[in-house]
Amino acid sequence: MQPDDLKQLWNSTSQHADAQETFALEAWRSHRHRAVQRQLGLFSLWQGLQLVAWLALAVYCGSQWWQQPPLAVMLSAMALHAYCIAVIIASITRLHRRRQLEPTHTVVEQSQQLAALARHTALTELLLGLPWCWLWLAVPVLVAWQAWGVDLGALAAPWLLASLTAGALAMLAAVLLARRWVQHAPASPWLQRAIDALSGRRLARARAELDALSGWTPT
Fold first, then answer.
1. pLDDT confidence tier of residue 77, bands split at 50, 70 and 90
2. What is the maximal distance between C-alpha atoms in the chain?
3. What residues have CB less than 8 Å from 86, skipping those under 6 apart?
4. Angle (nearest 5°) at CA 78 between 76 and 82
5. Which is nearest to 98 in space by CA: 134, 54, 47?
6. Distance between CA atoms of residues 78 and 186, nearest Å
7. Do residues 51 and 92 lie in contact, with contact meaning Cβ atoms separated by under 8 Å?
8. H or E stretch covering 94
């Protein structure tokens, strides 16, 4: 075999290997992109289910306080109704931010948008969790009234007042903890774990897929 033939064979083999490597890289990238979209789709599905559930609860609570029940029952229904509206707004906002995450964007843009969505979701989850220091009292008040016609506001007023006071102290402690949390550096591992816990595992998994994709090398 002549040297030219060997050189041509070598170039052909090298091109074939490069083509295989490029194909493998593109297949790996495509798999990662599909994984990101799958996790984001599940996140959207969960937000949609929450939206429907809280909308139904908002309608139920609204039907209760319009009937002019006892004061404690009316305040409980109104508080839950207002909370449902807040959750609905939060879910709609999250879905809107999720729709801005287009697979046609660059990996860097998607990563930045996903990080912003995760921070927004974590913050709203924290803010929506704080009212439950008080709102949990509304549940037994409504259940007692609906199931047995018992007005806990009149029957157990001291217990309700004590629970409201304890809830106020718990809310204050949570606010102080949250203030300390947001003062951490954005690169803090503890802060990132807290954001992942509050924003949900779907966004955390999608972000992990994007982080792997930004490396440009298969794992």
1. very high
2. 104
3. 128
4. 120
5. 47
6. 38
7. yes
8. helix 71-99
pLDDT of residue 32: 76
Residues above pLDDT 90, as percent of the chain: 33
Distances (CA, A) of 217 to 27, 36, 104, 126, 179: 11, 16, 20, 36, 39
Q: What is the DSSP annotation of 152-172?
A: HHHHSHHHHHHHHHHHHHHHH
**If pLDDT is split at 50, 70 and 90, which confidence band does 102 have?**
confident
**Residue 27: what residue type?**
A
Residue pair 118/207 in contact (Cβ under 8 Å)? The answer is: yes
Q: Compute the radius of gyration of the chain from its Cα atoms.
A: 27
Amino acid at 16: H
Fill in the DSSP letter of residue 218. -
This prediction has a pTM of 0.80
Band (107; pLDDT cuts 50, 70, 90) = confident
C-alpha 83/C-alpha 74 separation (Å) is 14
Q: Which residue has the higher pLDDT, 183 or 111?
A: 111
Q: Which of 113, 127, 121 is nearest to 94 (CA)?
A: 121
For residue 13, give every residue at least 6 positions away whose Cβ sits within 8 Å of its Cβ, in sequence order, or none.
none
Residues comprising the chain, all counted: 219
Calculate the average pLDDT of the chain. Answer: 81
Q: Return d(Cα 140, Cα 73) in angstroms, integer.
A: 10
CA atoms of 147 and 138, how far apart (whole Å): 14
User: Between 54 and 153, where is the model more confident?
Assistant: 54
Please report the sign of the dihedral spanned by the C-alpha atoms of residue 66, residue 70, residue 71, residue 75.
Answer: negative
